[in-house]
Amino acid sequence: MKQSIIISKCLNAELDFHIKSFNPDKVFIIVDNITEKFCLPRISDIPSLKNAGIISICSTDNSKNINSLTHVWRSLSEQKATRYSLIINLGGGMVTDLGGFAASTFKRGLKFINIPTTLLAMVDASVGGKTGINFNGLKNEIGVFNNSDIVIIDTNFLKTLDSENICSGYAEMIKHSLISNEDIWSKLLTFDILAPNLNDLSYLLEDSIKIKEEIVKNDPYETGMRKALNFGHTIGHAFESLSMIKQSPILHGYAVAYGMICELYLCTIKVGFPIEKMRQTVNYIKHIYGIYDFSCDDYEVLYELMKHDKKNTANTINFTLLENIGKVKINFTASKEDIFESFDFIREGL
Ligand SMILES: O=C(O)C(=O)C[C@@H](O)[C@H](O)[C@H](O)COP(=O)(O)O
């Protein structure tokens, strides 16, 4: 399951080299309607991509579904992809997750390269081999662990992003710092992500990728400590699904940011996470991401959604909690009352 992650200043030369080394019979590029317009032109002159087939899907996360997947499988089939073909996923987390799953399942698996174009996909989605789609209103319900053969990261793509997408990816970077390293956490909490210096952000991004890479290397199939990377997601995914149900979707990173506020509250009441660090992080998150608009009427639905989290066992909702920054406790349960209290906390404060 080894995955090479290359941060490159010469994307085209790098990509051309790797495509040639795979010697595929055909190359397919999976894009969404946004990366097709703004990112594909950056690589389309590469000689080895001259006859590449382009497969385009819709860009929003609610398109990460069986219909888009079927469209990709059908396009591969109609354009006669073989097991010796190569897929390039050019896009954000939706494209790398869905494209990775399509590549992993079509004819039982083709080689694929991820070229993440959003901050979220660079630091998180394209790394570590979680591929899949949403199903039945639930996040990433169907999928497989399968690493792309290579990830090539070109931070120039950050220039194509709006502030919301930068902030969305940054939430996963905050998560990486919370689960691993107080120095990085301090740096992130003083960084102005609303008016970011992209050069400085590129350095922070490299640290963040290393954190994820190290965790995934030690537990690729999430049997243990990889669950650290799911901090904020037990509640975050429920917020994200609720927003889809209400037909006012929010970006994944925003859902994770709100999920982290609730789960940091659980960390303080359940495992003694220092209250001052919790306040600092919560204030920073609220300053960047604003508030999540929901009411007591949503609590039961959220709780039902959380019953589908992949870390659960039997009837127990399991969390990844933190005793302190970098001190991770996995498989920690919380009562329904505690969870509802954490919802009160994000809505009303302490
Ligand atoms: O790579 C992981 O492991 C993660 O949990 C990273 C998460 O940030 C990511 O959003 C992941 O896709 C969530 O996966 P899921 O298993 O909870 O669906």
From TrEMBL:
First-level EC class: lyase
Domain 3-dehydroquinate synthase N-terminal: 56-166
Keyword Nucleotide-binding attributed: yes
3-dehydroquinate synthase C-terminal domain segment(s): 169-312
Keywords on record: Amino-acid biosynthesis, Aromatic amino acid biosynthesis, Cobalt, Cytoplasm, Lyase, Metal-binding, NAD, Nucleotide-binding, Zinc
NCBIfam families, per database record: aroB
Record protein name field: 3-dehydroquinate synthase
